[in-house]
Amino acid sequence: MIWLGIDTANTPLSVAIVKDGAILAEVNSSMAVNHSLRAMPVIEELFETVQLKPKDIDAIAVSEGPGSYTGVRIGVTIAKTLAWTLKKPLVGVSSLKVLAANALHFSGLICPLVDARRNHVYAGVYEYVDGNLVAIHEDRHLGIEELLDSLVPLGRSILFVGKDVGMHEALIMDKLNGNAVIAPFPMQLPRASSLIFIAQQSEHEENTHAFTPEYRRIAEAEANWLMQQRKEKGSGSKN
Amino acid sequence: MDKDIYILGIETSCDETAASVIKNGHEIISNVVASQIQSQQRFGGVVPEIASRHHVEQITLVIEEALAAAKLEPEDLDAVAVTEGPGLVGALLIGINAAKAFAFANGLPIIGVHHIAGHIYANQLMQPMEFPLLALIVSGGHTELVMMEKHGSFKLIGETRDDAAGEAYDKVARVLGLPYPGGPAIDKLALESDEAIEFPRAWLEADSYDFSFSGLKSAVINYKHNLEQKDGSIVPAHVAAGFQQSVIEVLTAKTLRAAKEFNVKQVIAAGGVAANKGLRASLDVVFEKEGIPFYVPPISLCTDNAAMIGAAGTAMFIDGKRGNMEMNGRPGMQLVSWIE
Ligand SMILES: [Zn+2]
């Protein structure tokens, strides 16, 4: 069984080909380079490296978000197009769960975190239970303070994973002091091999066409529109 | 031609997700468009983030439908042509990455097409292009006059200095309380109106083929404002007719002057605003009088579609043009000749 894994959800890019539980090749980078420019050339190079043709793969795993809207869409578009035209199963995995998978066998809680600007983050809370990565809190877009406040009452040691953790380290240490552990740099980047590892334990998408990113946030224009609708409805009912 | 050429065209530069199969550059085998207009109408215009989200939802479905309607398999194709720019960058990226993945999976070459070259080549789907050719491109994003000496050769002789014609239509429609998109609504009102308010024409310098519509838009806004201050109110149909007359008169006159100066054998109109009935009728009349063949494709090929991308892509394919996996969306892409 040969898997192709693609993660372009945030600044890092990771692509891997895994055959029968072994990594044939994996490319990881964390450069501010446009994924639209880099993703397909890297995938093409990877197939050349392992001397395989696209039709040789049996399944595709992709990081479905949350993260950069454009980044997530590039990976998802490539993955769903490949899966559809090659007639192979597609598995979408949370980009945060992929990060959490860097910390398999850690006995405390795992908090994968990606900065979302304006003091907000995308974050989830996971725990490694009986060989499975289980979500304790679902992935959310929220203020960093709000996230940390929700972690304090858990009273457990928490490993923070992701290359953006450093940006918020002081606040994390301040709020959680003894319970916070910052993952070291080898665990900072999402790895497509980890993505495939999780995907192998997950159900594949029933309908490739219908597969879309998990933004975990509605578009700003949509939010404004909904607010406007609510206002109009509100004033309407008073009349 | 020894062997038939089949090209899959893909277009996602704005708010239409489209795919099409074109045979030999001029025959439409299939033409599928998923429009987002109902979703975008809520916002009174195209919101880039919403457009991109819709494209991801539709892209593989639309390509599958285009292939199914053509009764072709990927291996029957010769290449994939996709809009490389200009357009909304996030929207372009969906079509481009789907095209790259599809081309890679099926061992096909990929060709990046300029959106305006596509609009011009939509005419190739109706009748063969004859050169020298003058093209008037009018849409929500463009107002341009392009000269072509031969296939693949483009010379921009005039363009808008501010708003595109379609943009002016949308803005004036908003002023008149008409729905988005403004073009069809204003066109309809104008045709029904028995009176037209006199608005200025922006001729610019005597020898210029450039356009300007922001002054006209301001004139409409001022007219409404002045009336309202006197407790009057506008008659939308009269304003629509006056606005439309000003736009059409300038577009027609400049197109005619260029056609005569460059001694062209054919004049074509392209883009969403080319579907405007008033504009079409005006151009028909002057070029009939002048004895220069004038063509506008049917509405479905005037508005954004992938058949036009497949048509232009085929011309590029025949000339040996090929892209690669490094193709990126180019929101500000210039229209340049692919042949010297
Ligand atoms: Zn267009």
TrEMBL record, chain A:
Any one GO MF annotation of this record: transferase activity
Cross-referenced Pfam families: TsaD
Gene Ontology cellular component list: cytosol
Keyword Transferase attached: yes
GO biological process, one term: tRNA threonylcarbamoyladenosine modification
Domain spans labelled Gcp-like: 32-225
Keywords, comma-separated and alphabetical: Transferase
Presence of the UniProt keyword Transmembrane helix in the record: no
Matching Gene3D superfamilies: 3.30.420.40
NCBIfam families from the UniProt entry: T6A_YeaZ
The name this protein goes by in its record: tRNA (Adenosine(37)-N6)-threonylcarbamoyltransferase complex dimerization subunit type 1 TsaB
From TrEMBL, chain B:
GO CC terms: cytoplasm
Catalytic activity: L-threonylcarbamoyladenylate + adenosine(37) in tRNA = N(6)-L-threonylcarbamoyladenosine(37) in tRNA + AMP + H(+)
Domain Gcp-like: from-to ranges: 27-310
SUPFAM superfamilies associated with the record: Actin-like ATPase domain
Top EC category: transferase
The keyword tRNA processing appears for this protein: yes
Cofactor needs: Fe(2+)
GO MF assignments: iron ion binding; tRNA N(6)-L-threonylcarbamoyladenine synthase activity
Subcellular localization: Cytoplasm
EC nos: 2.3.1.234
Protein name: tRNA N6-adenosine threonylcarbamoyltransferase
